[in-house]
Structure formats: C-alpha cells, structure tokens
Automatic annotation (TrEMBL):
Molecular function terms, GO-annotated: cysteine-type endopeptidase inhibitor activity
Keywords: Protease inhibitor, Signal, Thiol protease inhibitor
Lineage of the organism: Eukaryota, Viridiplantae, Streptophyta, Embryophyta, Tracheophyta
Family matches, as Pfam families: Cystatin
UniProt xrefs under Gene3D superfamilies: 3.10.450.10
Protein name: Cystatin domain-containing protein
Database matches in PANTHER family: CYSTEINE PROTEINASE INHIBITOR 2
SMART domains: CY
SUPFAM superfamilies given in the database record: Cystatin/monellin
Domain (Cystatin) ranges: 30-149
Residues spanning the signal sequence: 1-25
Source organism superkingdom: Eukaryota
Native organism: Saponaria officinalis
Amino acid sequence: MQKMTIFYFFLTIFIFTTTATRTNAERRKLVVGGRVEVKNVKTNKEIQELGKFSVEEYNKNILENPIQDVAGRAGLEGPLRFIEVVEAQKQVVSGLKYYLRVVAMQNNQNNIIINNKNNDDGLISKTFDAIVVVKPWVESKQLHYFGPSPK
C-alpha cells in the first residue's frame, strides 16, 4: 500500500511540473502588447477584408488630397487595385492593431517592367505595408499607415 501511495505521489508531481512548465513556455511566447503572427493569412477572410479596406482608404485619400499625397507618399502613382494580404501580425493595444503586407496592382504610367511583374493592361504588382487599428466595441476601423514595403 505504501509503495502505491509513493508511486501516485511522484506521478502527481511529475504531471503537475510538466504541465506547469509547458504552460510557462507557452506564456513566454505571448508578451502583453507584443506582435503575434497571424496564421493562414491567405484564407483568413477578416485579414483579407482589412487589406482591401487599407487599399480603399489609400485610394480615397489620394482622390481627396492628390498634391499632398504625391509629395508625401514616395512616388505612389494613382489608385491601387487590391490583390491580397500576404503577411499579417496582430497586436493588442487600445483595440487590435494589424500590421499587413498587402499586394496591389498600380498603373505603370511609364510602362516600365519592374521585376517582370508588368501586365499587358499597364498594371504592375507592388507590395505595400499597412497598419490598421480596429476597435470592435465602437465598430471603428482606421488606417494609420500605408506605404511601399521595403521587402
């Protein structure tokens, strides 16, 4: 009887320590306020909608402020056509802050072939970075940044 009690005692300690260790390791991955990679970006409808929203907001901004935009946006020319989000990260702030890498088509006004991504219809594929903050409790989405990606 005493051997069984000792066995169960050590078994309980073993289970408790391995579970606690695994939980602590998982906790270390999540830092409060830290960025977390979003999985399955290409099939995630919410992320794709946020990417489309960021392109629409950019297009709306260049129509409202064309002179300011050309000067402040490092040579972005004309409206964009959303293709897809290829990378995304999420951060909990006063809402959810999404860091998106967006692929969009742009008019190739000079008809220059860039990285063999020129299409017959005069559009070229470019990658952009966008930051969107979502506050679901007030049904708010706001584009904080949109510009050419260094990658």
